[in-house]
Design goal:
two-stranded antiparallel ribbon, Rossmann fold, 9 strands, 10 helices, alpha/beta
């Protein structure tokens, strides 16, 4: 049985109780990313959302069952869309209960990734869709110049894409999900063309990797980025990103379907 070391009940390496309020404000579902997930879930009526948080990216036109171990995250959900207090590693459902299942930005929080993915596959008849970051490419981003500790932390926490695919089995597609320049889901790479927004402490607080690096790293980041924006040094090196409508960063959608039968 996975342990639950945090005050909010979450089973991963971050206590979301002090962070939860910022997630509602800064981590809103982006409709373009939402469309990619909807396409992966096409044809399903019942959907399980694992590590569901406040409900971002849940398809409102389906019958969704949400699982979320963090009490503070569950408290942010609409009253008509409650979540079950459970973990990915021990889902309280029978085999093949759901047409499809999904997890968005949560797999890196699980205490046992393989166990959680096997559980999702066990309770799902059709596709399992995992929205995550590719640790092999996360550090290929301008933020590495300013807060390398943050990007190294993100890279170390996200499981390798092959690891996710192997645990799910079946027929697996890995889709690069383009990040729009005006993305309203404020993960770090969502600010690729809007660096000023990461000077906002709330924007950083809505990305759990910042909680690992300490205030000294944050203060250095703010000083250096603010100075480079004032001097034009950031724009001289990266200014073309402001005009780039999409960025092929680390965002990946892993979609696993049961193996085809001959």
């Amino acid at each position: 049985m996975p342990t639950r070391p945090h005050s909010d009940g979450s089973a991963g390496d971050v206590d979301y109780e002090p962070l939860a309020g910022g997630y509602a404000s800064y981590r809103r579902p982006d409709p373009r990313i939402e469309r990619a997930i909807a396409e992966a879930l096409a044809g399903s009526r019942t959907v399980l959302n694992v590590g569901a948080g406040a409900g971002s990216y849940e398809p409102l036109d389906r019958e969704v069952t949400a699982v979320e171990p963090s009490a503070s995250m569950r408290a942010q959900r609409p009253a008509e869309r409650p979540a079950i207090d459970a973990t990915a590693e021990s889902l309280p459902f029978n085999d093949d209960t759901f047409d499809a299942s999904m997890a968005t930005f949560s797999v890196h929080q699980w205490s046992d990734v393989e166990a959680g993915l096997r559980e999702m596959r066990r309770v799902t008849r059709g596709p399992v869709a995992i929205l995550t970051g590719d640790p092999a490419t996360i550090e290929q981003f301008w933020l590495t110049d300013y807060a390398p500790e943050v990007m190294a932390t993100e890279a170390s926490r996200y499981p390798a894409i092959d690891r996710i695919a192997d645990a799910l089995g079946g027929d697996v597609d890995v889709v690069v999900v383009p990040i729009p320049v005006d993305c309203i889901d404020g993960f770090n790479q969502a600010y690729y063309g809007r660096p000023e927004l990461l000077l906002d402490a709330g924007a950083r607080a809505a990305n759990s990797a910042w909680t690992f690096v300490g205030p000294d790293v944050e203060a250095r980041f703010v000083r250096k980025l603010a100075a480079d924006l004032d001097s034009g040094a950031w724009d001289e090196k990266y200014g073309q990103l402001r005009e780039q409508r999409e960025f092929d960063g680390a965002l990946r959608l892993v979609v696993a379907r049961p193996a085809s039968r001959a």
